[in-house]
Amino acid sequence: MDHNEAKKRAEELRTVIEKHNRNYYDLDAPTIEDDQYDALMRELRSIESEFPELMTPESPTQRVGGTASATFEKVQHVVQMGSLQDVFSVEEVEAFIERVSEQGADEFAVEPKIDGLSVSLEYENGVLVRGSTRGDGFVGEDITANIRTIRSVPLKLNEAIPFIEVRGEVYMSRKSFAALCEEQEKNGEQLPKNPRNAAAGSLRQKDSRVTAQRNLDIFCFNVQRIEGKTLTSHSESLDYMKKLGFCVVPDYIVCHSGDEVVDRITAIGESRQGLPFDIDGAVVKVNDFSLREEIGATTKVPKWAVAFKYPPEEKETTLNDIEINVGRTGALTPVAIFDPVFLAGTTVSRAILHNQDIITDKDIRIGDRIVVRKAGDIIPEVVRSVAHAERSQPYFIPDTCPICGAEALRDEDEAVIRCQNFDCPAQLLRSIEHFASRNAMNIDGLGEAIVEQLVNEGLIKTVADLYELDIQELMALDRFGRKSAENLLVSIENSKKNPLDRLVFALGIRGIGQRAATLLCEHFGDMDGIMNAFPLEISSIEGFGDVMAQSVYNAMQEPHRIKLIERLKSHGVNMTYKSSKVSDKFAGLTFVLTGTLPTYTRDQAKALIEQNGGKCSGSVSKKTSYVLAGEEAGSKLVKANELGVTVITEEQFNSMLDD
Q1: Which among 113, 156, 206, 615 is annotated as catalytic?
Q2: pLDDT tens digits, 95-113
Q3: pLDDT in tens, 427-447
Q4: Alpha-carbon Rg of the chain, whole angstroms?
């Protein structure tokens, strides 16, 4: 395939893939199978690998994040990202309608209020150039790298409009939230309170690779600024955003009276339990833009809109028991078992009580009448105790493990009580599942049922035993034929070649996630360096505090973990880290990229900067060291000149690399 053929085919593939992305993520109506989609992506990646000059920032292959940012640059919002006035009763809605009607309003846009994190998306000539958080409404944070990982965010619009800034709400679907909670519970991590908190935490990750794994989505609901197009009403703006390729807030309608507005609010409220995402209200807006200008705003909220908030659904029931679950870190987690109640669309009978402090603060006792609800309409929680049963006693989490009977102690710095037996069967199962999980050693075929089978048969007692399994042992087990046994052994063998940061994460050190594991490996270079490090040296790593440093140190001093690492080492598991960094010649320097470079894509230039120790930012400030500018450089170049920041060409950049 020559260059022209490759260019033509890459453009065709991008068009087809983006169409399927929209069908899958925006319309929830996929038209091809996953393996067919994967084949298209593989072909596009192959072309871009062979012809790197054809790679574009808006290519669907660039969705998954691959870099980490030490800080988020500040973004000054040209148009304030304000909040709305909340109302909680029909009477307040009717009063709002009456007031704005007296000022001439006769059309009202009503739409669901998505419960997520508000962001701004900016496009120049139809291409995404920046994404930022709302912040305080005036100043937010540049999160472009993380925004790009959200597949429902268009990287390139259907029209090359000169400029448009839209406001949207990033959210996590209920399905994705439930999956995240399940994974974090298995890992002994603290669970997010609701989908909104999970979405906000995911969107502000320093490492965009973490954001990419969280399955975030977005609904856009407002045009903040626009050039090259005149819009006269809110409903028109939503229709136009949809035409451009945005996934806009669903089920919006235009009402013409107070009664219609109230009926629509009621209908949205009745449908909320069946939605795949959370809403926390309905928004009512004057539809006409010119009338909005006349009605005006206060210093905090517009006078032309209100947000009606729905009350959370709560049910009363009887607490029959408190069950104790044991996680992979030995954490004893209390779970309330109560009479089933129908709540937010499903029947529930269990709720996590988290720790002893919560039980004590709420004075929850077995036999109590309790009030329960769903956090974010998904995760059941006990709100309060209504009445104690006669002769009830305060409840205390036991000081012995319910699985192995070993002593259970409370951590000094946490509210968690943990089993002290490293060989506890419950911890063993969870730790092996975590070790084999996708983000750790990624051992395909080693799911929960297989792990339990291997442990029950006595074939594995630590993760190191995985590397001593043979095909005859596996074929003797139920559900194992020769092919499945061979596949599992191949997957286990392949895991030995994983990068060291995957192994460090797989070891399940308390408080050490994927990003922290990578930082450890980048700093120390190999497993021996990590094992021999003292807390003071570990805490010097950017992003580490004293608690995390002490956790790593303590973990590496535990005899069972030292023995485990030595066994893994003897089996040929990789113990060294290969960093992508090639030099420190750009250490301490911050670059901003703008315009189209002659030979590099922005991602390629950014990779070169980071490989040489530098940092890239999405906006120009006094702290910017260099602005690398190409053709059609825009506002960033203007700002650089205003601030006196040094502007360099690609040729000058290459000279700096060669020095």
Answers
A1: 113
A2: 999 999 999 999 999 999 9
A3: 788 889 889 988 899 998 888
A4: 28
Helix count and strand count (H, E) for the chain: 24, 22
277: CATH: 3.30.470.30
Output the six-digit token pair for 143. Answer: 């999160």
The domain tally of the chain equals 5
CB atoms < 10 A from the CB of 520, how many? 27
Q: For 352, phi and psi rounded to 5 degrees?
A: -70, 135
Q: What is the pLDDT of residues 225-283, one digit of tens each?
A: 999 999 999 999 999 999 999 999 999 999 999 999 999 999 998 888 788 888 889 99
Partners of residue 333 on adjacent β-strands: 325
CATH number of the CATH domain containing 631: 3.40.50.10190
Residues 6+ apart with CB under 8 A from 394: 360, 363, 365
Q: Are 124 and 161 members of one domain?
A: yes
Residue 113 annotated to the active site: yes
Q: Are residues 204 and 83 in the same domain?
A: yes
Contacts of residue 408, Cβ cutoff 8 Å, sequence gap at least 6: 330, 332, 397, 398, 399, 400, 401, 417, 418, 419, 420
Q: Are 473 and 559 members of one domain?
A: yes
User: Which domain-ending residue is among 506, 538, 570?
Assistant: 570
Backbone angles phi, psi at 142, to 5 degrees: -75, 115
Angle (CA) 133-135-140 rounded to 5° is 60
Spatial CA neighbour of 118 closest among 69, 156, 84, 78: 84
Q: Provide the pLDDT confidence category of residue 582 given band limits of 50, 70 and 90.
A: confident
Q: Where are the alpha helices (DSSP H) in 354-499?
A: 356-362, 425-436, 448-456, 471-475, 482-495
Q: What count of residues does the chain have?
A: 659
Is 363 in the same domain as 302?
no
511/540 same-domain check: yes
Domain that residue 646 falls in? 590-658
Question: How large is the average pLDDT for residues 517-540?
Answer: 91
